Amino acid sequence: MKVAMIGAGRMGGTILRMLKGAGSWSLAACEPDSKGREALSQEMGKGVKLVEKVEELGEAEVILLAIKPAMLEKVAGWLRTRKDSYLLISILAGVTTEKLVKEAGGKARVVRAMPNQALRVGEGVTALCAGAGAKKEDLEVARSIFGLGGTVLEIGEGQMDVVTALSGSGPAFMAKWVEELEKAAARAGLAAKVAGDLAARTMLGTGALLVKEGMTPGELCAAVASPGGTTEAGLKVMQAGGMEALAEKAMS
């Protein structure tokens, strides 16, 4: 099966590497940026056809959109020229399946996907939702692609904006919290490198406890925080500082 990717930047490049590593796909990618295209060409070798313009991609059973939403109109004309029915997988934030079908033409069977950056290390999470004309087999194709980089969930399209904020933007939100903990520890006297390692690995271990042991966040907080202890005091400071309200604002 041939996959033609439009956009091979940070996320598109990650997906392209996953597919190349799997070795079971015929791959082509359009990347207008000459430096990015040249770097990918050197990295990928002969296994991926890299082109400057979408018109050079040729026919494909699967087209994967990994561009900025504002660029959709620029490639829509080419999408409408497709001769046969095809699967269009889009990672464009905020662009509905209805709009994608309208822009791409009636031959597109649309699946939306919202992956995150952790695909790069095999710990990503991707949410999928199907458009009105998509088949069960189309979702399975999308699942097989994003499953190469982690966990895949299927949701209703009405939930996609929340998922975009939670797991799509979530790595940045969590990284910011790690950064602030690191800075606070450094101000308290820890070497910056030590503080960074401790903060990042604590985040990593916390995620492992929640996922692998099935603990809820509340259970983990209770397990760590002894009554009257320093952890409980720190949690109270966070609550008093409006952590819940900040999370809601960041998600909205």
From TrEMBL:
UniProt cross-references to SUPFAM superfamilies, sorted A to Z: 6-phosphogluconate dehydrogenase C-terminal domain-like, NAD(P)-binding Rossmann-fold domains
Positions of the Pyrroline-5-carboxylate reductase catalytic N-terminal domain: 2-94
Keyword Iron-sulfur assigned: no
Entry EC no(s): 1.5.1.2
Catalytic reaction list: L-proline + NADP(+) = (S)-1-pyrroline-5-carboxylate + NADPH + 2 H(+)
NCBIfam families linked to this entry: proC
Name under which the protein is recorded: Pyrroline-5-carboxylate reductase
